[in-house]
Each structure stands twice: as structure tokens, then as C-alpha cells.
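Sequence only, no structure available. Ideas?
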Amino acid sequence: MNIFWIVFLLLLPSVLAARPLDRIVAVVELQDALDKPVKPQIITQSEVEAVSRPLLQKLRQSGEAVDPEKVWAHSRDELILRALRSQKASQLGIVVDEKDISAVISQVERDNNMPMGSLPKALASQGIPFDEYQKGLKDTLLQSRLLNRVVRPLVTVSEQDVRDLYDSLRQRSQSEEIRLGQILLYLEEDGKAEQVLQQAEMLVEKLRSGSSLETLAGQYSNDASGLKGGEMGWFKRGELLPELEKVIFGQEKGAVIGPMRSPQGLHIFKILDKRERSQQRAEKAKIKARHILIKVGADASEEENRAAKAQIQAIAKELSQTEKVEQSKAFMALAQRHSQDATAKDGGDLGWFGEGLMVPAFEEAAFALAIGETSGPVRTPFGWHLIRVEEKQFLDPDSLDAQRKELTERVQESKSKARYKQWLRDLRQRSYVELR
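Reply:
I predicted one. C-alpha cells follow.
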């Protein structure tokens, strides 16, 4: 036998003693019957410790009494959810690559006026390993893409939702923002609801008696924010579920609120800070427009896309050969002959609309046009369009029409986040998770 192998085998016991094997603490396998199978994923003790370490260090430095086992278990559960997210993304073909992560890092450096390539050193000075930062970015991007792909299509925002938020803002300060902390306790359907409620009331009492939110959230919260000491960030009106917002906004800084029940479970909130932000509303417009649509799907072949584009270009060329004073009538006639949607019979008439009602590419092109001007070919997920603006009105910045887009986005965001958390819980419940 080679002498080097003999020496290695003789030293092996001491090597293993010096560097113990990383223990497996969980095995995770997504089990969605309608989707393709995935490979089980293991979670190791060192991975859990890497997640729990920053919060534990912070809590110990503060002198707060803390149960490391609870923080460790919370960190393990968060890694289980990350594994399920990763597996679901793999099923759906959602990928976050090195180029995506590099683009975010470059944007962070630009936003903070940092020299390109300086972020790793800046993070190291704060004790944050760059590879851990990159892993966090990857998970955040994956979560955002999953939310857009799976959850947002299930969320609807009604006209009444937007009007309710608008009326609420008119009655109160629109510039008020709050920084919110939270402890979330899941209510499982296993007969333990009363026990969870008692625990929630105990945590409220502790917070009101001066206990640290960071310490309690890190040990008890079932939400990912628990690993950040319960920190949820800043919120404007309309960015929380309406039933929560009605109670939370208007409270004083330092107030502890709850327990409050929602589809997610029992919430305990603390107002960490408040501020008033000056708001200068830009003048906005609504327009009356027509369009001609040649349909071609977003996933169409290159050949299909070229053919549709050639058709819309031919229509645009025919229109351009018409006298300017006749182009409105000519556009209507061309729409009736060629447009491939329900507006064709009305000459492509879309009526009046403000910002936030059309897909972004269409809206950007339409609002850039002057009255009586026709766009070049515009590609949207529906196909190729020509757009003509016939009238334009400028809106009172404080009107509902002027604020509709922003208010719709706020409601959409709050509903999507709540739906996403429920979706993630359901994902875990129908998956195989073995704790070791």
C-alpha cells in the first residue's frame, strides 16, 4: 500500500475527532402531486447555526435572557421554508443565477454611492460574510419571482378596495408612516388554539412590562421577521391588511397591540417608530385612446412574432400615407378591418383611462403621446399594437383618478404578501419534512 495512504489512515481518527461531521438536522422534500418530483434536500447543523448566530450574538450583547434552543429551532424552520421555496422554484423553472445576483449588488453599490466592487469589504467590516449575503440575496430574488408567478395572479383588487383606501387616506394623514415590529403565532387546527392564545397574551404582557421585542420575536415568532428581531420595516397606509391597519395606525410610538387574529394566525405588534413624510404630488393625466391589435402570445415563436410585427408595420405604413387631418377616421377604419380584439367594432376605442389600468409597455407608450399622435408598433404580452391618443385631461393630484395606480399597487402588495405567507404554510403542510 502506498505510504501516503498508510499515514492518512493512521491519522484519520484524529482528523475526524478534530473536525466532527456536520450533523443533518432535517430532510425536506416538496410533494406536489401535480408537479414533477424534486430531489430531497438536507439541512445541516452548521447551516442552522449560521442563520441563528447573528441574532443570538445581538441578544447576548444586549444582556437579555435568551433561550438559544428556541432561536435555533426557529432558524431551522426558516431554512426548511427556504428549501421548499427552492424546490418549488425548480419545479416551475424559476432560476436565479450569478448574473442576477451581481446586478443587485451593483445596484446596491450605486444606490449607496459606493465604488464598484467595494460591497464585500464594507460587509466584512460589519462582520457579515459576503457568501452569506449572496445566499440571502438569492433567496430574496427567488421569493420575489415565486410571489409574482404563483401568488399575484390569484390576487384581485376591486374598485371598492381602491375607493376604501382612498377614502381612508382623505380622512387621515397620508404622510404618516410607521416602523413596525411583530410576533406571529400560527394557529394550527389541532385543538391547541387556546394554548396559543394564552402564549400570545403572555408575550403581550411581557412586552408591555419592558421585555425586548427582539428577544421574544427571535424565540417565539413563526414569521421570518423573527430572525431580525421582529423587524418588519416601514409601512404607509394601504400596505397592511385593512383589518390590521385600522387598529395599528393612529397608535403612539412604543404601543403594543394585540393579539390580533388574521388568516395568518395571531399577531402581536409594536410601533417601533413613526414619521411624517412630505409629499409632493406630480400632475397626472388621463387619456382617451384607440388601438389596433395584432395578437401574438408572449411565448410565441420568433417566426410568429416576426409575422405579427410585419403585419402591424404594414398597417402603420398605410396610415402614414393618409393626410394628417384624415388620420383619425383612417385609424378607426383600419382598426375595424384589422384589430383582433373586442374593440375592433368600435374602431379600437378604449375610452378614457388613467395610469395603472393598462400593462406597463402599453401605458408607457400611450401616455408619452401628444393629442392626435399615433405610436409606432408597441409589443405587449397580448401582441403588437398601434396606439392613438385623441384627448387628454390633466388631473387634480389629490383626486382618486390621479392616485389610482399608487393605491392599486398598495392594495395589491398587502394582499399578495398575506396570500404568500398562507401559500408557504400550505406548501409545508403538504410536503415531507423529517426532523432529526
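The first helix runs from residue 3 to 18.
Hope that gets you unstuck.
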